[in-house]
Design a protein that fits this description.
This protein is an alpha+beta fold. It contains 28 helices and 41 strands. Helices cover 32% and strands 20% of the residues. Strands 10, 11, 12, 13, 14, 15 and 18 form a 7-stranded mixed sheet that branches. It is globular and about 100 Å long. It binds one RNA strand through helix 9, strand 11, strand 15, helix 13 and strand 32.
RNA sequence: GCAGAAGUGGCGGAAUUGGCAGACGCGCUGGACUCAAAAUCCAGUGGGCUCAACACCCGUGCGGGUUCGACUCCCGCCUUCUGUACCA
């Protein structure tokens, strides 16, 4: 009979809630540990099986540190603003506030059913006005700041020096606005005329497939000047313990590159500035390319080509960013009928536009050097533009530049000189410096550092987000709300359809949008854009330290206690947030740091990504239309999980088949009854459409929360992605049953076999090595191996009729972080009256955790020929003597001469014999 | 294309300053208990060779290398996963 997990789990969950067991300790003299999960979006679908993976891991960590005397903060909250809820409300008419409330309740119920140690008094909900008051406050802090490049920090705009020549108040305001870290700009967005709304990137394909036209149209947007922090965001990555891959992604995203800006003059006298990382190749620049959106395009375009060029620009605008990338495998472009002068050699070179040149990077214009840039080379070949070689791999090597561009940075300049400067013979690095020097001397260019990172588009044309607390007056001026006017609360509305003008639904709420400003008495209109979902998650980790504070987002005292010395001690969440969330949060944190509101440079010290839990492995075989079975080696899968015959591209029908009917031969599975047919075996991501989603509620009701927790941790390394296999849960479930029977009898009382006796040496070893292993594995997040060790413990002690009380009692404390419910019950059965949550983690004795005798491997010529039971730390001489007495060793040494003896203490002895 | 991670039994996985490959679990096989089944307990379980045991041989994606000794280090490939994609 299985142990009564249902009763046990509900009993203790109620007890913990009633007794506020998980309330945070207010004793701030203790050392602290702050372990944080990425808080969830409370969707209507509820918790999926991936959530408990990271959450269990942090719960184990939190309980373990708590048992080791730390004051632990392990909070939970909800990132509840966002599009899915707004869309749900449009369909159902249920208000987002209401939907969010219901969803959060459901999430809380599910989280509680897994026994996590959250102190719900610490909850954070980004849609709560008491929370977003501070999100707005931080936005205003950013808005009211400028970036001082000398001090390398943000400062209040009130401290900004106004240039003397500005006297008009409007001019001064414009000047200040141009320096603010939050500013308004015209930025292209995905505009759908028919729907009268702006679409999120992920919505574009959905509507396009329904036949709607979506175009890139510049609209008025709020931007945050994150680019000012590019260098700090890059350099401070050295301060954190993050996965290398995540650091690399951020480095890539920031995309620092050094080069030069060079001014080319058009024949009509306009200055065209380009950015290049290879100013040394300027003598090889044979044409210029502007982005279709470049501001000079229309003035440069010659009259007879105007219509043609406008058509090209229009078609480029209709492509989404994604399409532009895909379609541009074959580059397109147009000559605009104008020429520029190459400043290095005076050549007359044509000006083109092409959508492979991006308007938002660099200056939106490039000098094309087809000899030394692959993209320019491809373009030049297609449109028959001249290719000149100006760099050679080395002085005497001749390459075919017409066939392939030479892009290495390790060459030497050739064909690169004019009356004033020569790069010939110079190594690329020196050539770059020489060229920049010449350009700067002539005042037609300068060295320049360029970042890929763009300013953060911070407004959304939606209802369900934080209102941006800015008002506009009829005279064109504007005013930001003061702190005492926050929060600016969302008005209750029932219609979430967009305004049709590209504005958010808020624009239709007349009573909210238009009003008389009390402070100035002027007629005013609120900003109707709201903030993106990222905003609330930029600082929630700070709110957790002091979530009820009404004076400030978090008191200095609490913020310092939990965050110092280097930020959140451990942050666990999916790698899908490796770039955006983590970059945005770091940016906000640095602004707060500049003002002294936080005292650590970085928010998250150690970061860990849990791996994805995939669906059950599936096996398929394939049939074509004629009914023939096709072996998997001839089959190709596309991104939509459709299968085709590689040989003739015929679409195939997939047939699922159970593993019992398969046989593994070599690396692949084949049909048992036809071993010529290989099957396709794979685990897919869990998805509704695939029907392979596992619901945690089902697992909890069938096996209990402790089993689910244990199973997810036992599955494999936390960071690895691994397939879910329901049948394997039985393993950890059996383990918990064995634990139960070890200590409790059928009636739930202490088993008569548990008795207060001395442990024998073997039992001492098992107990202490188990405690040691777990103590070391938990901080390393190696939970699968901890659980394996606990299984060994149970298997060992099952062998004895008498189970020593001391061993049982210590073992239950080891199990407690992993399986808190059963541990709590057993803890009480063992006679304790206080919750195991407050117990100490058991200590181990190093001498008892290692064996007094070990098995020494004996090798002859590196092959194992025997094993010796010897005392630990045996010396070489004794080991040699013992080993040479072994009959197998003797046999293999017969007639041979020992050339050398290799002895590795406590591991092996190896006789090299010839 | 680029970047990062990974590849070990039928399956999930363990073992890394180079030293017993396959811990632990699932599954499978056999046994005990039972009228029987379930549950539980015990034993076995990488492959080959062998009646069997001992012994021996092979074995950590593929091909080389370093070493007394390589899952582990080096060089070159292949495959999978994740991220990213014309950033001049």
């Amino acid at each position: 009979m299985a142990y009564p997990f249902k009763e046990i789990e509900s009993k203790w969950q109620k007890f913990w809630a009633d007794n506020h067991t998980f309330k945070i300790d207010e004793d701030y003299s203790k050392p602290k540990y702050y372990v944080l999960d990425m808080f969830p979006y409370p969707s209507g679908a509820g918790l999926h099986i991936g959530h408990p993976e990271g959450y269990t891991a942090t719960d184990i960590i939190a309980r373990f540190y708590k048992m080791n005397g730390y004051n632990v903060l392990h909070p939970m909250g909800f990132d509840a603003f966002g599009l899915p809820t707004e869309r749900y409300s449009m369909e159902t008419g249920i208000h987002p506030t209401e939907a969010t409330k219901v969803n959060i309740e459901n999430f809380k119920r599910q989280l509680n059913s897994l026994g996590f140690n959250y102190d719900w008094d610490r909850i954070v909900n980004t849609t709560d006005p008491e929370y977003y008051k501070w999100t707005q406050w931080m936005f205003l802090l950013i808005y009211n700041s400028w970036y001082d490049h000398n001090l390398q920090k943000a400062r209040p705009v009130s401290e900004l020096a106004i240039p003397k020549h500005l006297s008009d108040t409007r001019e001064i305001e414009e000047y200040i606005d141009s320096k603010r870290l939050a500013y308004i700009s015209m930025i292209p967005v995905n505009w759908c005329e028919a729907l009268g709304t702006v679409l999120a990137n992920e919505e574009v394909d959905e509507w396009k497939s329904k036949g709607y036209t979506v175009e890139r149209k510049p609209m008025r947007q709020w931007m945050l000047r994150i680019t000012e922090y590019a260098d700090r965001l890059l350099n401070d990555l050295d301060l954190v313990e993050w996965p290398q891959s995540t650091r690399d992604m951020q480095i890539n995203w920031i995309g620092k590159s050094e080069g030069a800006e060079v001014v080319f003059k058009s024949e009509s006298g306009e200055n065209i500035t380009v950015f290049t990382t290879r100013p040394d190749t300027i003598f090889g620049a044979t044409y210029l390319v502007l982005a279709p959106e470049h501001t000079l395009v229309s003035s440069l375009t010659s009259g007879d080509l105007r219509e043609d060029i406008e058509n090209y620009i229009k078609s480029a605008a209709e492509k989404s960013d994604l399409e532009r990338q895909e379609l541009n495998k074959d580059k397109t472009g147009k000559f605009i009928g104008a020429y520029a002068i190459n400043p290095a050699n005076g050549n007359r070179i044509p000006i083109w536009i092409a959508d492979y040149v991006l308007a938002h990077y660099g200056t939106g214009a490039i000098m094309a050097v087809p000899g030394h840039d692959e993209r320019d080379h491809e373009f030049a070949k297609k449109y028959n533009l001249p290719i000149i070689q100006v760099v050679a791999p080395s002085v005497d090597v001749i390459i075919d530049i017409d066939n392939e561009a030479f892009c290495e940075k390790s060459g030497f300049g050739i064909n690169s000189s004019n009356d004033e400067v020569s790069l010939n013979g110079l190594q690329t690095y020196d050539a770059i410096r020489t060229m920049i020097g010449w350009l700067e001397g002539k005042n037609i260019g300068k060295g320049k550092v360029q970042f890929k990172l763009r300013d953060w588009l911070f407004s959304r044309q939606r209802y369900w987000g934080e209102p941006i607390p800015i008002m506009f007056f009829e005279d064109g001026t504007k005013r930001a709300l003061e702190s005492d006017e926050l929060p600016l609360v969302l008005p209750p509305v029932s219609d979430f359809k967009p305004a049709g003008t590209g504005e958010s639904p808020l624009a239709k709420v007349e009573s909210w949008v238009n009003f008389i400003d009390k402070k100035t008495g002027k007629k005013a209109r609120f900003e109707t854009n709201t903030m993106p979902q990222w905003a609330g998650s930029c600082w929630y980790y700070l709110r957790f330290t002091d979530n009820k504070n009404t004076e400030i987002f978090a008191s200095d005292e609490m913020q310092k206690y939990w965050m110092e010395p280097a930020g959140v001690d451990l942050y666990v969440g999916g790698s899908e947030h490796a770039v955006l969330h983590l970059l945005y949060a770091r940016f906000w944190h640095k602004v707060l740091f500049d003002y002294g509101y936080v005292t650590t440079k970085e928010p998250f010290k150690k970061l860990f990504h849990q791996g994805l839990i995939m669906g059950e492995p599936e096996h398929f075989f394939f049939r074509n239309a004629a009914g023939e079975t096709i072996s998997a080696e001839f089959v190709r899968e596309n991104d939509n999980f459709e299968f085709f015959d590689k040989r003739n591209n015929e679409k195939l029908i997939q047939n699922k088949i159970a593993e019992d009917n398969l046989e593994k031969i070599g690396e692949h599975f084949y049909l048992k009854d036809n071993q010529a047919i290989r099957v396709h075996s794979k685990s897919y991501k869990m998805s509704k459409s695939r029907g392979n989603v596992v619901n945690p509620d089902t697992v909890v009701s069938e096996f209990g929360a402790d089993s689910l927790r244990l199973y997810e941790m036992f599955l494999g390394p936390l960071e690895a992605s691994k397939p879910w296999q329901t049948k394997n849960i039985i393993g950890v479930f059996n383990f918990l049953n064995r634990v139960w029977r070890l200590i409790a009898d059928d009636n739930g009382y202490l088993s008569s076999q548990v008795q207060k006796t001395e442990l024998n040496p073997e039992q001492e070893y098992v107990l202490h090595s188990t405690i040691k292993k777990i103590s070391e594995d938990i901080p390393a997040l190696s939970f699968n191996t901890s659980i394996a060790q606990m299984m060994i413990f149970v298997n060992e002690f099952n062998k004895y009729d008498i189970k020593p009380f001391e061993a049982m009692e210590k073992f239950v404390r080891c199990l407690a972080p992993f399986a808190p419910h059963i541990s709590e019950e057993l803890w009480r059965i063992l006679g304790n009256s206080e919750s195991i949550y407050f117990a100490d983690f058991p200590e181990y004795d190093e001498t008892k955790a290692s064996k007094s005798t070990i098995e020494l491997v004996v090798q002859v010529s590196s092959k194992i020929r025997g094993k010796l039971q010897v005392n630990v730390d045996i010396d070489q001489a004794s080991a040699e003597k013992l080993a040479l007495e072994d009959s197998q060793v003797k046999k293999h040494l017969e007639g041979k001469e020992i050339k050398k003896v290799i002895f590795v203490k406590n591991k092996l002895i190896n006789f090299i014999a010839v």
